Predict the structure.
Amino acid sequence: MNTETPEPNCSPEELTRRRFFARVCVGLGALCSAALAIPAVGFVLAPLFRKTPQLWRTVGKVTDFEIGKTVSVVVEDSSPLPWAGVTAKTGAWLRRVNENEFMAFAVNCSHLGCPVRWMQDANLFMCPCHGGVYYSDGRVAAGPPPLPLTRYFVRIQNGEVQLQTLPIPITGPKGA
Amino acid sequence: MRRIFKGIWEWFDHRTGLSDTIGPMMKHVVPGDAKWWYVFGSATMLAFMVQVVTGVVLAFSYIPSSSQAYDTLRFITEDAPFGRFLRGLHYYGASAMVLMVGLHMAQVFLFGSYKYPREMNWATGALLLAFTLVMGFTGQLLRWDQTAVWSVVVAAEQAGRIPLIGDAFARFVLGGQTVGGATLSRFFAIHVFVMPALIFAFIGLHMLLVLRHGISEPPKVDEPVDPKTYNEHYEKLLKKSGRPFWPDAAWRDVVFCTAMLLGLILLAWIFGPPVLGKPPDPSIVQADPRPDWYLLWYFAVLALMPPWLENYFIVLGPVLVGGILVVFPFAFNKGERHPLRRPWSIAIVIMVVLLIGSFWYIGLKSPWSPNFNAQRLPEKAVGAAAGPIADGARLFYSKGCLNCHLISGYGGRRGPDLTAVGARLTHDNIVIRIANGGNNMPAFGNNLTPQQMDLLVGFLQSRTNTLH
């Protein structure tokens, strides 16, 4: 490959012309890069800006739940993509406190998001990852979690228990 | 016939210039005494090639869709010819790549080969280490079983700790508000296109730098690197005792790489790929997510870290370690290279190996996690088949105490071993501790009737020795 150029036996104008070509190439290259990069980056970042409505989802009839018991329920995401399959589902812990009152918690430990398990007789939620423990009302009982379990809004509509969908709770730097 | 092939090759070589381009690279002169210590770089590259080949063929059947990936992996593992073997080879290839990058870095560090003029060789290598770890993590996610789904959530939580942009970054990781249809495909794109492209580019740059500066000679005591004289010294050395890389030095790389590949093939053939967990259904909460072995040490660090340090560590830790790795060869680019003249280099390597090894081991045990598989205490451990002691033991199990405490070798290790607690604490001490909790233990005061408390305390007071 020959990369040697003829000795520039040329005038300063020609050198300026060469520099001009170089700048045109760099400028057009930058323009082409931007033309590709802007839509590409926009496409990849789109999920950040997509507004997701939070919807009420029925998880069962009021009579399905025993007073004083905490059970796992399945909540369908508010706007699942058609190919989401089982990932369109989210788990939640639902506790019937009394005749008309329910409490529901996200399954995600506030430490690093692992799914907490309900231990019925111990009356505690325990996290399998780093040992976080919560009381039945979601307060931190032990371990590294910085915040209580995230609560769902719950309502009773026509004899059905409904939970309002939630994004996965991200604890963030202030919570921790 | 031979003449015909020779003619074809000569025509092809003339038109493509292959020998003229590749020949000087293959035959570049290397120090004559660069021997077995120098094979780890080639082994890393071979492991990467194994990943490329196995990854490409796996992609013929793998569908990166949240609803189908798990089933396609089951098909690959259980039905497709060679599928189990190829998945296994991909897994052990990833492990080998991580291991060989580590060995290559340790050798370069101990030999002081990162010093002038090879600072950029090290810096590009450090970036390749980071890319390799990202590949390992994203690869685990593509398994798209229950562990993969929860690992994505853990990754998003960690991303969320970054000040200001944390929440947005976490949503970027998830591909939306929750794990869903958009989650897997972004990790697929990163694992299959973005990171391999970066690795190819940086391997190219790394190789270019190796050719430009040559392979460093094994260090000698009292032969410090002086940037003013090193190039001249290296030229003389090559003239005196240099050998062409191909085949005088390359044969060792080929032998070691062959042995490694045979080892990988054997592992994949005998043990197969990692077992797929439960389906990727986020509503199944009976999960116990753990990262693959090469990140298990980090999982342990996150469990054992004091809470006040956690945010700083998660956010600044990788930046700090990455920054130090990239920058330090520029700060220490001259002076002695031999490890005997740099004993701190030996200490650092031993310390890193011990630290990662210890965290890895404790990550395997995870004593901070409740033991969800704890079984009722057997009679021989309780010391009674009926009566208040046996009733207390049953409560100790049903109230979840056994999930965290050990009694005569049974139970969890999250809390203290209570095998001899009766000899250690008084009745009142035990009551106070159970009722109020404390020291990382929940308060059980509202969860026990006075009778239950008596039974529980009676059982614990009977734990006075290890004979049970």
Q: What stands out?
A: Chain A has a mean pLDDT of 91. Residues 12-49 of chain A form the longest helix (38 residues).
